[in-house]
């Protein structure tokens, strides 16, 4: 089945987990485009550059596959850095062809914030995955700290950071985060990863019965 499925949504809503599992279930390649921006931010910091102040176009153009596999791409510093570089038109342009080339040949499940609106506006299926900020903060805490008991102050800080990033992503002039008009809404507040996957597989099979 050659499909291009766009999975968009805010940070820590579960879109990455869904996209990866959905790709495996449908035997399609998967691309987490957020990792591209995270990797650009990390490489900028390693080069002594400030993602919020300096241009990242050259680093985006030179990004290597190994840069996407680092273990330090999902930390608060890189959350902020990725949000900053994502506002740079030149960075987005440098990464756009990479994203399109990845999916065009054999189809793919691609997750990000502008896949259904900018990268693949004609995707076969568009999903917009979301959850409340407190739920996403708890998920991010668990991602960072495993089974450690939730800390109220840490959760409050993470919630504030997530809400701030939501505003920046929605208000940026270049490719803002928004739900495509034809995207199906997937709310994950009260669903675990398995239930979300089952729900979306049902949507896929209903639309593409073959």
TrEMBL record:
- Binding positions for ATP per the UniProt entry: 9-17
Principal localisation? cytoplasm
One GO cellular component term, please give it.
Answer: cytoplasm
Q: Which SUPFAM superfamilies does the annotation name?
A: P-loop containing nucleoside triphosphate hydrolases
Q: Which InterPro entries match?
A: Cytidylate_kin, Cytidylate_kinase_dom, P-loop_NTPase
* Cleavable signal peptide: none
Q: Where in the cell is it found?
A: Cytoplasm
The GO terms this record gives for MF are: ATP binding; CMP kinase activity; dCMP kinase activity
Alphabetically list the UniProt keywords. Answer: ATP-binding, Cytoplasm, Kinase, Nucleotide-binding, Transferase
Q: From the UniProt record, list the reaction(s) this protein catalyses.
A: dCMP + ATP = dCDP + ADP; CMP + ATP = CDP + ADP
Entry keyword annotation includes Nucleotide-binding:
yes
Look up the domain of life of the source: Bacteria
Q: Which GO annotations describe the biological process of this protein?
A: pyrimidine nucleotide metabolic process
Write down the HAMAP family for this protein, in alphabetical order.
Cytidyl_kinase_type1
Q: Which family does it belong to?
A: Belongs to the cytidylate kinase family. Type 1 subfamily.
The name on file for this protein is Cytidylate kinase
Species of the source: Swaminathania salitolerans
Gene that encodes the chain = cmk
């Amino acid at each position: 089945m050659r499909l291009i499925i766009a999975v968009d949504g805010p940070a820590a809503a579960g879109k990455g987990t869904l996209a990866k599992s959905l790709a495996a279930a449908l035997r399609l390649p998967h691309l987490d485009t957020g990792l591209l921006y995270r990797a650009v931010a990390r490489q900028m910091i390693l080069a002594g550059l400030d993602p919020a102040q300096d241009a990242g176009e050259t680093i985006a153009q030179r990004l290597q596959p190994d840069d996407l596999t680092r273990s330090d791409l999902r930390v608060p510093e890189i959350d902020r850095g990725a949000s900053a570089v994502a506002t740079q038109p030149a960075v987005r342009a440098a990464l756009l062809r990479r994203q399109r080339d990845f999916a065009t040949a054999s189809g793919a499940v691609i997750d990000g914030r502008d896949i259904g609106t900018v990268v693949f506006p004609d995707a076969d299926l568009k999903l917009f995955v979301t959850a409340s900020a407190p739920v996403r903060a708890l998920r991010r805490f668990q991602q960072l700290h495993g089974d450690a008991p939730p800390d109220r102050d840490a959760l409050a800080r993470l919630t504030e950071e997530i809400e701030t990033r939501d505003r920046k992503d929605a208000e940026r002039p270049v490719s803002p985060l928004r739900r495509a008009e034809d995207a199906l809404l997937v709310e994950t507040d009260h669903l675990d990863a398995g239930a979300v996957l089952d729900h979306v597989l049902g949507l896929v099979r209903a639309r593409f019965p073959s």
